[in-house]
Amino acid sequence: MTPTLVQQHLPHPGTATPRDTEACARARDWAEIQERMLVPLYEAVYERLEVGAHTRLLGLGCGSGLALLIAASRGAAVTGVEPAAHERLALARERLTPDGPWGTDCRGDATRLVKGTPGDAADPALPAYNLVTAFHPIGCMAGDSEGLAATLEAAAPLAERGTPVVLAGWGPPERCTTSAVLRVATRLADPLRGGGSWRPALRDDLEDVAQRAGLKPDGSGRVACPFGYATMRSAVRGLLSTGLFEAAVEATDHAQVEKELTEALHPHLRRDGTVWMANVFRYFIARTT
Q: What is the CA radius of gyration of the chain?
């Protein structure tokens, strides 16, 4: 399958500001270091739902597109929606259409990338979706599920009745070694009145979002997703790329966050220089009504 692309409203590259350069570097770190940590989650969901050539997948918050790429490799037709992260969408485009021209709109049934809302992915010329995913994990930062229910509500009319909708979240803190490291973000962000503060995942986080979106529960599962890094430097870069430390950087500075994050990661440094943290993530399956 040769994927094609819908890319909406992505600007042509121009003169980069320092903030733009940093955002691009973080997006690249996410794509090259951190995103692969969630591959066991993607694979478990696709295996359970038998994703294949019959699947028409709508990926909400698709980021740099690794989950879409895995689904496409199983034969699925995929559409990714990303609301704001230009840099991650550009990387998704590189992954899915490495030879495509920048900034052009190419329409096709195989693979599409859309900047905007689920409504922007609507196309009356294409069949309805029969799988919707929201793989960005919720449940470790205050307010990290805000807006998700509304996004799912907007996506539901684009899918067939009874379509599975998959949500993902962090597992219980006692099963997630990285939870202790993420508390650095809370402590450093306190001057911003707790903005982006860490909190333990709650048992019903995913169920609550699905209920607010008007979806019908249909099962759940847990998947081991260890975070493993070749070096301490790659561990720091990978975790910073998640966006979970942005409030801490604003409250202090980049160097301070890196220093304290390195200290928090030190107990997980192995003799060979690698960093390893065991984690469990949870997924929840609901269905459109």
A: 19
